[in-house]
Design a protein that fits this description.
globular; eight-stranded mixed sheet; alpha+beta; 30% helix
């Protein structure tokens, strides 16, 4: 394995110490944008600081790229890519579909990852060899379900409003082909895909810290995750995740028309 599950759990713990006391108890919300709304909270900043301290103390030779405080030692072979609260809009709305993301890249490839949802006490982890769930009632290996036809698939996206112009046309082609579409689940949707409850996740406008941690979790659970042009998901941007290679190929074809 390339990352000990015990260390991923430490990341989840130090982040939760900052996020949980502030969840549904928001004292301060800032807006990153002068036009529009991109919220950031004290919880985002303090959780990222805690994760950085832990990584720096344990792996001083590793680099870090974080949403709130940028990059350090990004020229190193091992780089952690972290988002202390993915789904800040859900966080400030009191909805527990946000999560703490931490992914490890080696020479640019995502090899291990964590998605932690502390309010529901759930961990979705990949140590480089397998993906694991730990939460209420069970600890088990994650495995995607074997849906192979779009007509039988469940599709998640955070909101169709994220797709503009031709991307919206392409997304709509896929949504019109599936059995069920659901919205508003942020990183939790990818976790549910790895856990076998969701078949497709389609999004756009993502940054590396939004997706890197989720790539190995999905891949080691049996799924496929790429950009819309079939490239490496670590590049971020427009992302397609699927439970099976067959489903991925069908959705990719519709997105590319």
């Amino acid at each position: 394995m390339v990352a000990e599950l015990s260390f991923l759990k430490q990341i989840a713990r130090v982040a939760a110490e900052q996020t949980l006391p502030r969840f549904r108890n928001i004292s301060l919300i800032d807006n990153k944008y002068q036009t529009g709304f991109d919220p950031v909270t004290e919880a985002d900043r303090e959780a990222e600081k805690a994760i950085r301290r832990l990584i720096n103390a344990t792996f001083p030779e590793h680099g870090i790229l974080g949403e709130e405080f940028g990059g350090e030692n990004l020229d190193h072979s091992h780089v952690w890519v972290i988002d202390p609260i993915d789904g800040t809009r859900a966080f400030i709305s009191g909805i527990p579909v946000w999560g703490t993301l931490a992914g490890l890249t080696v020479d640019g490839d995502a090899v291990a990852g964590l998605m932690a949802q502390p309010f529901t006490n759930e961990l979705f982890m990949c140590d480089g060899e397998a993906s694991w769930y730990e939460g209420p009632g069970s600890t088990r290996r994650l495995e995607t379900r074997k849906t192979r036809e779009l007509a039988e698939a469940t599709l998640f996206t955070t909101t169709p409003a994220m797709f503009k112009d031709q991307k919206r046309v392409a997304y709509d082609r896929v949504e019109q082909s599936v059995r069920l579409a659901r919205y508003g689940t942020d990183c939790y949707a990818y976790a549910m895909l790895a856990a076998g409850f969701v078949d497709l996740v389609i999004e756009t406008g993502l940054h590396p810290y939004d997706i890197v941690a989720l790539v190995p979790i999905i891949e080691k659970a049996g799924g496929v995750i790429t950009t819309w042009d079939g490239g490496a998901a670590e590049k971020a941007g427009s992302i397609l995740a699927a439970a099976t290679p067959e489903l991925h190929a069908q959705a990719l074809e519709l997105l590319g028309r």
